[in-house]
Amino acid sequence: MRRAFQRCIATVPQIRPSIIGDLPISAHRPIRFNSITRAAIASHTVATRDFHSTSLRKDAAESADGRDQAKEDSDAQVVSKFAELETRGLVHPTVVNTITRGMGLETMTEVQSATLHEALRGTDIIAQAKTGTGKTIAFLLPVLQNIIEKDPYLAKSSHGRRGPRTTADDIRALIISPTRELAEQIADEARKLVKSTGIIVQTAVGGTMKRQGMRDIQQQGCHILVGTPGRLKDILSDPYSRVEAPDLNALVFDEADRLLDQGFWPEIQGIMQLLPSPAQKPRQTLMFSATMSQDVITLARQTLKKGFKFVRTIRDDEAPTHARVPQNIVKLKGFENAAPALFELCQREIMQSENDPSKPPFKAMVYFNSAAEVSLYYSLFRALEDRSGRSPLLPAKTFLIHSRLSQMQRTRAAEDFKRCRSGIFLSSDVTARGMDFPGVTHVIQMGLATSREMYIHRIGRTARAGREGTGWLFVDEMEAREVRGKLGEMPLVPNDTLETARLDLTQAADISAEQGELLATYQKAIQQVPRGEKVKVFMSFFGTFAWHPRKQQLVDNMNRLATYGWGMEEPPMVSPSLLRRLPSFRNVTGLRLGHEPSDDDGSDMRRSSGRSPRDFGRRGGPAGGFGRVGPGFGRGVLPPGGSSGGSPGGFRSEGTGYGGSSRSSGNGYSGFSRSGRSDGPPRERRAQSYDY
């Protein structure tokens, strides 16, 4: 009956207070910092000015009397080694052994050292800490120890033994996360910690794994439930789910500022009403946040017990990641230069890291503004491999992640990228905040982010935990004019070291032998990318660049990408129904109205006839190059005084296209031909799979 009543209350809409002044008087319980943890004081002063209230600072000063301080001096000694948790009797030996031996962790991070001692004593904690600082273990350890203390039999795994059956209403801890990816990441870390115990960890997230998650909870039971606000509320309020938490003794808010920024306040209120009252069933609440906004303060006042601790691990003089990471901006000649320039950058940086032992392995996250672009570039990078599977980007492996993949695929991709020594992770913004990928040396953004905040979140994936990193932003001439207005004062330094970035791929040019080889490799790979993927990217640009006022220039650039960058005979057709939804494009010329034919053969090539709208890698024909007419890469036209062996400085090709060093007189690489039949059918493309 009680549970039914709670569910009914949860369905009543709640009003989200925007400022503390909007709260009812009963909610204005003063926040008291009875004593600041000495671990935090030892490293730097814990600032309370972020709470925007002089009364709060007064409370903090008045709350610690001499007796309390003496107790702190004797008890709250700094713990810096995980092994100390066992010797002091704070954490069960099974869990400590998993951390030190199983996970290979020895020394705590700053946020772990500053919070664990108090949290393990049952004190409520609010900690201001950046992502990637080890806060997940900081809140998981107290949760696990709390469960083991209540039920010691859970300290050991029940495999092979008959023990009490865990049910769906045996939830002891609830961990609330703003995103599916972060929830899965937390759950994976928790499963590592409970590996040798009988504690069961489950997730409650939306998407394709929603039913599977529910089935696991009902069949296997659950002690720790990690989930997103909406899904958690749905499960707890559903009387048919049988998921309840009458014995809840721990509640964790991770990324509290993001939970509130994304509008989850109503769901959080609903969840709170579905949980046992703290007055009837005492529980510990742990809250971690990168910032202390007014809404975070409100949440703290409504959830934390009197006498909680505030720990801050971000110093006033500490520069944010986006202010201290070196950031390069590369201005592209056009959209068609983006992929060759990215290929050139990755190849160069990989080579440098392999040849210089002092440099860490190349590990890059490459961000795109749409899932369609992620898929296209993944197909392109996979197509760079030769018949033996060898890629010019080795030893870096390529991974992809975006919102259209299943949760299982995303989790697997993220875990594989974390474990790899050197890799290229092609991603949409699903990984831009909250997720920690160790060892990322480069963050490369292909085009302007949707906002300044998103740019900052992306760049924050590198230079974590005291390591160094580098940022790169690729923008075409059209986007370059908007950088200052969209991103503000970012320390972006122009970088013109990428030769392919500024090439006019519609005209003849002199390029080095290395770049001629690079472009030849690229054009052979791009022909293997399915036409359907190119069409999807083309269509996605209508949304990605909806902000751009010069629609005619945008369409011209898109058409040039299709023909000169992708080697298509003509730009993709735009359906009349789509154009009707885009009134700002109605007077733009250059759009081909119609419907794209289905393309199931996996490429742009018409294999049955051996004919291609634009032949790639064609030798010795009358037309070639990225240009409309004329030969392409290095077709046997040597500079005065040159030799058939090629010139280090490259040479100018006859007609249009790009000349690199020729391998022999009258031979070389031809580019995208406007028309013509190839000397033979193109090499069959290996089946593309999206396994990781």
From TrEMBL:
Identify the keywords attached in UniProt to this record, alphabetized.
ATP-binding, Helicase, Hydrolase, Nucleotide-binding, RNA-binding
Instruction: Give the source's domain of life in one word.
Output: Eukaryota
Q: Where is the composition biased (Basic and acidic residues)?
A: 593-618, 676-692
Single GO MF descriptor: ATP binding
Boundaries of every Helicase C-terminal domain copy: 345-506
Q: Name one Pfam family in it.
A: DEAD
Please note every region of biased composition (Gly residues): 619-635
The family database entries (InterPro entries) matched by this protein are listed as:
DEAD/DEAH_box_helicase_dom, Helicase_ATP-bd, Helicase_C-like, P-loop_NTPase, RNA-helicase_DEAD-box_CS
Q: Tell me yes or no: is Cell membrane among this UniProt entry's keywords.
A: no
According to UniProt, the reaction catalysed is: ATP + H2O = ADP + phosphate + H(+)
Q: What is its EC number?
A: 3.6.4.13
Where in this chain does the record put each Helicase ATP-binding domain? Answer: 116-310
The written remark on domains in the entry is: The Q motif is unique to and characteristic of the DEAD box family of RNA helicases and controls ATP binding and hydrolysis.
Entry's family note: Belongs to the DEAD box helicase family.
Protein name (record) = ATP-dependent RNA helicase
